Amino acid sequence: MKFSNIKIAFFDTKPYDRRFFEQENESFGFDIHFFEPRLNPDSVSMAHDYPVVCAFVNDNLGAATLEQLAKQKTKLIAMRCAGFNNVDLAAAHRHDITVTRVPAYSPRAVAEYTLGVLLTLNRSLHRAYNRVRDNNFSINGFLGFDIFDKTIGVIGTGKIGLTFIQILQGLGVHILASDPYPNQAAAAELHYDYVSLDELYARSDVISLHCPLTPDNQHMINRRSIAKMKTGVYIINTSRGKLIDTAALIVGLKKHKIGGAALDVYEEEGDYFYEDLSASAIADDILARLLTFPNVLVTSHQAFFTREALTNIGRITLQNIADFLEGKLTIKL
Ligand code: NAI
């Protein structure tokens, strides 16, 4: 096979990663070594002499890891995800390591999931499931509201935000949006309005985050922004955990200022998400407190997790690697 002499160190491997990457690798023939540990300064030595490293959302690609990878002769980091906030790009450039990612593998997967958690949270499906299994057929505490005629604020109208807005078209809602680069053509076609963040906070019944995490917008949902929101607002985050100051969110939930939150991501998720920790105690008191609220739905960064998305992630990641090796890579970070 064309690339059989190219070794790839694949970190944070789960059974589904292996299945989809092996399937897509039939067309490339890379020599992929699947490692279970996450990439970090302790595990980086496993990638010794691997020209290519493949990593995911909770791998640690900070300066220390990158410096060691450079010493070990890694030339390419192929991220198998869209977000890249966990990569120190300045350090990668300094060490002449190229970084690629998968900018779009299935905006539908995340957008459909966002609608799913909104409906689940509003109608307490997550609680109803458990109650009925316990022969408890009471519906006390499950009162929701019609989504129809409500105002949904979408922060970030890129691929996922826009797909979410398309899906919302069938629900008869009012849509407000905020984005530093407004897409006015889409706004005209899909009947939504760009407003300032403050106006979006003040008018929305549901706020959904679809922007990337950058140094400028860390903790954009904080005590001050929550104070500007409607009482009873729902906050949905399928983007990145650090967009929300979770301690401030908890205060808002305790004061009933926030009516509910659906969180597929959490700012300190790295130690927990994707692992079965059912036999251990949670040391993170903020996460533990979040999990006590009946009106908070936490899921383990799974919005992307569809067959279509995993197929695309495998194919595009391996194509990025092939393009890099053949000098055809057009988009790098
Ligand atoms: P995209 O790059 O197509 O769109 C992002 C949009 O956000 C752009 O229009 C950009 O101008 C806008 N933006 C940037 N900073 C902003 C700010 N401060 N306020 C408002 N808007 C801002 O990205 P895409 O594909 O729509 O993905 C969005 C995010 O979703 C990714 O960055 C990633 O963090 C997250 N994601 C989460 C997944 C999950 O499984 N939970 C899976 C895939 C992506």
Describe the model.
This protein is an alpha/beta fold. It has two domains: 7-105 and 306-325, 3-Layer(aba) Sandwich (Rossmann fold), CATH 3.40.50.720; 107-298, NAD(P)-binding Rossmann-like Domain (Rossmann fold), CATH 3.40.50. Helix content is 35%, strand content 15%. It contains twelve helices and twelve strands. It has helices at 15-25, 63-71, 89-94, 107-123, 125-133, 159-168, 184-190, 197-203, 223-227, 246-254, 285-290, 307-325; strands at residues 7-10, 31-34, 52-55, 76-79, 98-100, 151-155, 174-178, 193-194, 206-209, 233-237, 258-263, 296-298. The strands form two sheets. A seven-stranded parallel β-sheet has the order 8-7-6-9-10-11-12, with helices on both faces. Strands 2-1-3-4-5 form a five-stranded parallel β-sheet. α1 packs across α12 (307-325). The longest helix has 19 residues, at 307-325. It is globular, with a radius of gyration of 21 Å. The model has no long low-confidence stretch (mean pLDDT 97).
- Globular, elongated, flat, extended or rod-shaped: what is the shape? globular
- Overall pLDDT: 97
Bound molecules: 1,4-dihydronicotinamide adenine dinucleotide
* Spatial order of the strands forming the largest sheet: 8-7-6-9-10-11-12
Backbone structural class: alpha/beta
CATH architecture classification of the largest domain? 3-Layer(aba) Sandwich
Alpha-carbon distance between the termini?
28 Å
Q: Quick one: CATH superfamily of the largest domain?
A: NAD(P)-binding Rossmann-like Domain
Beta-strand percentage range:
5-15%
The radius of gyration over CA amounts to 21 Å
Q: Give the number of domains.
A: 2
Total strands: the figure is: 12
